Amino acid sequence: MAQWIYLNGEFVNKEDAKISVYDHGYLYGDGIFEGIRVYEGNIFKCKEHMDRLYDGAKSIMLEIPLSYDEMQEALIEAVKKNEIIDGYIRLVISRGTGDLGLDPRRCPVANVIIIVEQLSIYSEEDYVNGLKIVSVSTRRNIPDAMNPKIKSLNYLNNVLVKIQANLAGVGEALMLNSDGFVAEGSGDNIFIVKDGMIITPPSYIGALEGITRAAIIDICNQHGYVVKEQPFTLHDVYVADEVFLTGTAAEVIATREVDGRIIGEGKAGPITMHLLKEFRKIVNKDGVQVYK
Ligand code: PMP
Fold first, then answer.
1. Residues with Cβ within 8 Å of residue 49, at least 6 apart in sequence
2. Which InterPro entries does the entry mention (predicted)?
């Protein structure tokens, strides 16, 4: 089936979806993006993703050429056009086409791209067995230089983490902030469980305010778990009863080993599995229905 890409208000074939080499997203990583899941025709947490997008745009003074409602409509249309029931949306807003100078004033209008695809995710076995991960030497960008709360197109920090994960032969890795506190993975937030308490780093540590992270905190509160946003170190990860990662693509996935230390029983623990189960109960409901 043809894949239709939304490109500045029009749907074009994947092969024809082209953008200028003078685009500042390409030249400077100047822009923002979102990754959003569609579950059974439901754009999961659509509003939350849009809020993060528009907040990021405000922060970097990027004017999105679509209103909030128009953007939501464009997402719905892109999912429909590609006849996707379960999939993944990549929404990219770059500063636009300019010249070789980095001045954003040279880019009169932002480029807006929406790609909708099927998603290849972890196997069900991975969710039960948990992932083996490592920590890496690459530190998280410091918030007063390039705030990790902004889901910007400048992902080199994360790419460097992924390269270190690749070199270590694992799929995901943890980065610390410059004070040595655990920040997040290259594309996921982290939670640890110790003596029944669930802890995730506060976003000021240098972590993205993940939509899945927020959904899991809500689920914890609804189910009577004690959940705290508190800084912790690698030692706390090593001695945790359970460690899991959250993200749009990963959902809620356990880690069975971190830096050679076996976590808990060496497989997904009961709290992780319970949270995954509860999370999967809301994914087709909490959001915007495409096929009403
Ligand atoms: N941290 C980083 C660096 C990410 O790229 C992502 C994925 N967007 C996350 C955390 C998880 O965020 P979310 O749950 O919104 O996908």
1. 34, 36, 91, 211
2. Aminotrans_IV, Aminotrans_IV_CS, Aminotransferase-like, B_amino_transI, BCAT-like_C, BCAT-like_N, Class-IV_PLP-Dep_Aminotrnsfr
The percentage of residues in the chain with a pLDDT greater than 70, rounded to a whole number, is: 100
Domains along the chain with CATH numbers: 4-117 (3.30.470.10), 124-282 (3.20.10.10)
Annotated active-site residue 151? The verdict is yes
Contact between 227 and 247 (Cβ < 8 Å): no
Task: Kindly report the pTM of this predicted structure.
Answer: 0.97
253-262 in b/e form (b: 16+ CB < 10 A) is: bbbbbbeeee
Mean pLDDT, residues 244-256: 98
- What count of other Cβ atoms lies within 10 Å of the Cβ of residue 1? 5
107 is written with which tokens? 């880019």
Out of 45, 47, 149, 151, the active site residue is: 151
How remote is the C-alpha of 205 from its chain's centroid? 17
Residue nearest to atom 4 of ligand 1 (CA): 187
Quick check: CB of 248 below 6 Å from ligand 1? yes
Q: Which atom of ligand 1 is nearest to the CA of 211?
A: 15
- Tokens 């890409």 belong to residue: 5
Q: Rounded to 5 degrees, what angle do the CA atoms 278, 280, 282 make?
A: 80
The answer to which of 59-68, 112-121, 215-224 has the lowest mean pLDDT is 112-121
Confirm if 117 and 88 have CB atoms less than 8 A apart: yes
pLDDT (tens digit, 9 = 90+) per residue, 181-204? Answer: 999 999 999 999 999 999 999 999
Among protein residues, the one with the nearest Cα to ligand 1's atom 7 is 187
Q: How confident is the model at residue 119 (pLDDT cuts 50, 70, 90)?
A: confident
Nearest Cα residue to 35 out of 249, 190, 224: 249
What is the C-alpha to C-alpha distance for residues 267 and 171, in angstroms, rounded to an integer? 16
